[in-house]
Give the backbone structure.
Amino acid sequence: MALKNFLVAALVLSASTAVLSRDHGVRTAAPAACAACGTVQEVHAEKRQGEGGAAGIVGGALVGGLLGHQIGGGRGKTLATVGGAAAGGYVGNEVQKRANSRTVWVTTVRMSDGSVRRFEQQARPAWGAGSAVRAANGHLQRL
């Protein structure tokens, strides 16, 4: 019996609170729009070429110079050695760039203000097209 009275009292109290809110014009504020929020438009992977460096250039030049030195005789041998070293340095640098390449994930987001922003990250993101996200410190968070 006491439980029944308690439930009735709770129901009456909640109903009267709702009536008071309507009668006195008390309204709850609508949530403010999130300026840093948006909707994911697209997610895709892009390959980024790495940096070349001295190791690739020097290693390629040595190999190219040695191969060029095997060709010709006299002045031709000198030109082949220099040309092989130059070509080898270029090829060695390009090989090093490809060896250091990496994949990044690019997320395109239409922000709540209508602008479109791109975000990059190393790992595959946990969201896809249509997901709601928030930008914080240059990174995205799923809502």
